[in-house]
Amino acid sequence: MSTGVHSKAAPAGSQHADGPRLLADVGGTNARFALETAPGEIGQIRVYPAADYPGIAEVMQQYLKDTKVGRVNHAAVAIANPVDGDQVAMTNHDWSFSIEATRRALGFDTLLVVNDFTALAMALPGLTDAQRVQVGGGSRRQNSVIGLLGPGTGLGVSGLIPADDRWIALGSEGGHASFAPSNEDEDLVLRHARTKWPHVSFERVAAGPGLELIYRAFAERDGIAVAESVNSADVTKRAHDGEALALAAVNCFCGILGTFSGNIAVTLGSLGGIYIGGGVVLKLGELFYKSPFRERFEAKGRFQQYLSGVPTYVITAEYPAFLGVSAILAEQLSNRANSGSSAVFERIRQMRDALTPAERRVADLALNHPRSIINDPIIDIARKADVSQPTVIRFCRSLGCTGLSDFKLKLATGLTGTIPVSHSQVHLGDTATDFGAKVLDNTVSAILQLREHLNFDNVERAIDILNGARRIEFYGLGNSNIVAQDAHYKFFRFGIPTIAYGDLYMQAASAALLGRGDVIVAVSKSGRAPELLRVLEVAMQQGATVVAITSSNTPLAKRATVALETDHIEIRESQLSMISRILHLVIIDILAVGVAIRRAAPKPGAKLNETVATMRDADDDETGAVLDWLSHGASGAARE
User: Fold this and answer.
1) How far apart are CA 403 and CA 195, in angstroms?
2) Inter-CA distances, 602 with 195, 494, 582, 615, Å
3) Rounded CA gap, 25 and 79, in Å?
4) Max avg pLDDT among 395-399, 546-550, 600-604
5) Contact call for residues 72 and 20 (beta carbons, < 8 A)
6) Distance between CA atoms of residues 261 and 284, nearest Å
7) Would you say the pTM of this structure is higher than 0.85?
8) Cα(527)–Cα(547) distance, integer angstroms
9) 26 is in an annotated binding site
């Protein structure tokens, strides 16, 4: 099936400069796809049964083959599932996939995956009166919170919160809230559902399959035999045909949905209205509008008056999720282009007209397909830009980079603010290419997270403490002992008495001898080892100071004088605790550079180079490299 949709959320405009964008709405039953060729111009809509394909990559490949679209650079998927990190395992279907691996497999520069109701929520502000039907009274307030729910294969929930001139969509799994019956009929439904599941959520009774469950519960009560083949679609048809049992089931279903909608309204304060999407309500049609839905929506006792002023709408727009996921993708790409952190992109744009025609082709490749530059070898970059390899190098140097590697690093830095930080799980059977890329991606992502969330005020305090220390002892157990030994290797070169202990007995013996002016740097991923905590308590009672490198909200972080927190995602079953160790080593390097800078600070009237020279030890290669950087880097910066 192929059709077209014109979005009212954004005016139609010129063609996307980076080519058509692939939009997808993936549910437990069907996967829907479309191409957006310009803002608001969505067409080539096709629907594929999810059960016919082994995974999302295969059905996307089929759609691209069927539409003969050619190259697609950017894609966005709304999926009926929570999205938290790189790995997605669908609740109502058997698809499981890595977002990053799928992006690489399909050759996209961007693959954005969001919860389907987050996408649908982003479409709500642009809906017209022709794309929604109001049920009951109430009037919406402008710039107020909007609630969204939708019974389909599951029960999706989301909301929109106004923020200045934009909307923030909530990711929610509210459909899994525990079902609470409101009358005897619903008590019966709950008892029937409990024979099937230990936990009965609203999704069990107020999503599409819930209509069949209610019908069977009522039939069992009335002694009516129901064929195994009867499903929710059959119940809907029988209700339209006037069957009493089916009508009772539909009314019960709509009443439960009304209660749940009222719960969402009072929870979010949805004075901007409650919107209902999904296909189930549309198929009920007039049966829904005549049902107890609105009565039960307002039935909140003391808050009935409050809810009577909140409007409820049924979304009638065709494929509204496409409108929302298009808006999210457009914002993502706009942020990439306009982010203040992407200075390299701005420099390319500013210099583009001054470049040679061949160099401009490399510039366009970098602007439109930055991942190609970052990931590809120079031979492939030159081929894609239709230039020679020396031209690629000349382009990099025109931007002030020393070469292609330097340019790749700067380009990747410019992308970090717009590419979602994710974690890819390593699986048995991965090739070296796959698990190598995942390990590197995971490490880079963790370092970027550290850069964004590290408390640099605490870093400054830790550096001041270490720089003024009489003695520094580094404590680490297990893997953390490696970090402690590395820290000892770096810090003893500053002329500060240091030692590293990886044995609890030695830690306890040494800590008892410490006092004021002495510092312990305790490295621990868990931050919970009771023996280590007791050792540190003894040292602090003696007057010593403790700097902790650990995870947030751990006993160690709470007890330390200063805590440097290094949270990250790590899956124990699939890899060693490698990322935490790398982050701890990075923190040690930051502290070492900080102490080197403090000690290299010139005295009044002294030149920096002279001060550095007085500190350099002929046998101290590593610290000497830091001091060389301080000397030459600072003087170079001054010349610029």
Assistant:
1) 67
2) 77, 16, 32, 11
3) 6
4) 546-550
5) yes
6) 17
7) no
8) 12
9) yes
Say if CB 83 and CB 288 are below 8 A apart.
no
**What are the phi and psi torsion angles at 44 (to 5°)?**
55, 40
Q: Is 171 annotated as a binding residue?
A: no
Query: Look-up: residue for tokens 């605490």?
Result: 458
Query: How far is the C-alpha of 331 from the C-alpha of 101, rounded, in Å?
Result: 23
Q: Name which residue leads in pLDDT, 633 or 68.
A: 68
Query: Tokens 């390319």 sit at which residue?
Result: 348
**What tokens were used for 100?**
């990053």
Return the closest-CA partner of residue 537 out of 554, 561, 501. Answer: 561
Cβ neighbours of residue 468 under 8 Å, at least 6 residues apart? 517
Nearest to residue 549, comparing CAs of 580, 503, 584?
584
How many Cβ atoms are within 10 Å of 440's Cβ, its own excluded?
11
Q: What is the pLDDT of residues 317-342, one digit of tens each?
A: 888 889 888 988 887 776 655 544 45
- CB within 8 Å of 485: residues ≥ 6 apart: 474, 476, 500, 502
25 annotated as belonging to a binding site for a ligand: yes
Cα angle 466, 469, 475 (rounded to 5 degrees) comes to: 65
pLDDT tops 90 at residue 595: yes
Q: Token digits for 68?
A: 């003969």
Token duo for residue 411: 């380009």
Could you tell me how far CA 407 lies from the centroid of its own chain?
Answer: 27
Helices (H) and strands (E) in the chain, counts: 29, 19
Alpha-carbon dihedral angle through residues 37, 38, 44, 47, given to the nearest 10 degrees: 110
CA-wise closest residue to 545 among 599, 606, 473, 487: 473
The answer to whether residue 379 scores a pLDDT higher than 50 is yes
28 labeled binding residue: yes
Residue 115, strand partner residues: 79
Task: Say if CB 565 and CB 552 are below 8 A apart.
Answer: yes
How far is the C-alpha of 13 from the C-alpha of 17, rounded, in Å?
11
